[in-house]
Design brief:
Layout (H helix, E strand, L loop, with lengths): L6 E2 L12 E5 H7 L7 E3 L2 E15 L2 E5 L3 E5 L4 E17 L24 H4 E3 L2 H18 L8 H18 L9 H17 L6 H8 L3 H12 L3 H17 L6 H7 L5 H12 L3 H9 L6
Parallel strand pairs: 1-3
Antiparallel strand pairs: 2-7, 3-7, 4-5, 4-6, 4-7, 6-8
Helix pairs in contact: 3-4, 5-7, 6-7, 9-10
């Protein structure tokens, strides 16, 4: 049994049409890639729309049910696994981080959609019946385009993919940021990006506020207004998330993880983790790496 959690790149999969995208019926994909049912990470964007099946899945250690009409989205780096109780089907699309970049003038266009924010609770959506029907038609058009042998580029597929995102966003009323809030929204996105880049070295809101050229109070107010959480909580949650991702790699000792996350020593890391998660790192590791059905 492989101990290290695998990270899959878009090149690990047979291309659907061009190298940057894979589109398939989910039943076929799940059957063909049984190894993907256990915990793994992607270096690409990933979405699945279920038309049948039941069970559960985990995205970054949060568990969600699987049912027809449910769609979920994932961003690169997240940890994911499935546990199906009945045979699933639907549609899956994987696409690389730069697949849409040459097609759009806005390089961060996907940030307009809350289901690409990297927060699992926003990424799993049960769609109304009307939207489900629209999405099935879009997926079928994308699959049909993949069978088109005429030598044309991928623009139609990219257009259909964007339409899919917009239909989901409209059905959940999460389409763009409110008018007049673009400056603060940009600040918040930049803060989140800085956390992703520096969570192991910078732990204090004032350090990030300095990088953003605003006061710590402004940063804190921004986070509370948009997300209902303090800036310090966002930083801490990112550290804990990375700790969890590292803990399911059984090749790493807890002391090594503490060092990777820039804790002074192992005991401080253990106290920090237990304070906010309620269990020790070793207990978390055991709960999340034990095969299904065993204790």
């Amino acid at each position: 049994m492989k101990n290290d959690i695998p990270v899959y790149d878009i090149q690990n999969f047979k291309a659907y049409k061009n190298d940057g995208i894979l589109v398939s019926r989910f039943g076929h994909y799940a059957q063909q890639h049984q190894h993907l049912h256990s915990a793994h990470r992607h270096s690409f964007f990933h979405l699945v729309f279920f038309t049948q099946g039941s069970g559960s899945q985990q995205i970054d250690f949060k568990r969600f049910g699987v049912k027809p009409g449910l769609i979920y989205f994932m961003v690169p780096g997240q940890v994911h696994s499935w546990d199906f109780e009945t045979v699933p089907d639907g549609y899956i699309i994987n696409f690389s981080s730069d697949y849409l970049s040459s097609f759009l003038l806005q390089p961060n266009y996907l940030e307009n959609f809350s289901f690409f924010n990297g927060q699992p609770d926003s990424q799993v959506i049960l769609l109304p019946a009307e939207t489900q029907a629209k999405l099935v038609a879009i997926f079928e058009d994308i699959l049909k385009e993949g069978q088109n042998e005429k030598p044309i580029n991928d623009d139609l597929v990219k257009t259909l993919l964007l339409r899919l995102f917009i239909e989901v966003a409209r059905s959940t009323n999460v389409m763009h940021t409110a008018p007049g809030s673009s400056y603060n929204h940009t600040l918040l996105k930049n803060f989140q990006r800085l956390i992703d880049q520096n969570y192991a070295q910078l732990r204090l809101p004032k350090q990030y506020a300095s990088l953003l050229y605003i006061t710590p109070n402004h940063l804190n107010a921004l986070c509370n207004d948009f997300l209902g959480q303090s800036a310090g909580t966002l930083i801490r949650e990112r550290v804990i998330l990375e700790a969890k991702r590292l803990l399911i790699n059984l090749d790493l000792m807890v002391a090594e993880i503490a060092t990777k996350l820039n804790f002074a020593d192992q005991s401080y890391f253990i106290k920090f983790f237990k304070k906010y998660e309620g269990i020790t790192p070793e207990k978390f590791r055991k709960l999340n790496t034990t095969p299904h059905g065993t204790k």
